[in-house]
Write a structure and sequence with these properties.
93 residues, alpha+beta, Alpha-Beta Plaits, 32% strand
Length: 93
């Protein structure tokens, strides 16, 4: 998580696992990025691998990229000071 935060403060790491096979060390994790990050998955993986090789040269990284959370929204939430009707609107009654 510290390395991910150093690269992007909004990045979150989860499901981190370490494996050792007969010929390599593998570090696998999910990288959760905000929807505002517009870099390609390939570029992100390359960047993380390049940074991690300095501290962990013998590790192979397996990174699963997820863009599952929203940092901010410009759209109003129905029922929260918006002009959109919410599910309890009187127009259906």
């Amino acid at each position: 998580q510290e390395t991910a935060s150093g690269i992007d403060p909004k990045a979150k790491v989860s499901n981190m696992q370490q494996f050792k096979t007969s010929d390599e060390h593998i570090l696998s994790f999910d990288l959760l990025l905000p929807d505002t990050d517009n870099h390609s998955d390939t570029k992100i993986r390359e960047h993380y691998r390049e940074i991690s090789k300095k501290s962990y040269p013998d590790f192979t990284l397996i990174i699963t990229i997820q863009r599952a959370y929203q940092v901010s929204s410009k759209e109003p939430v129905p029922g929260k000071n918006s002009d959109l009707p919410d599910d309890n609107s009187a127009s259906d009654k």
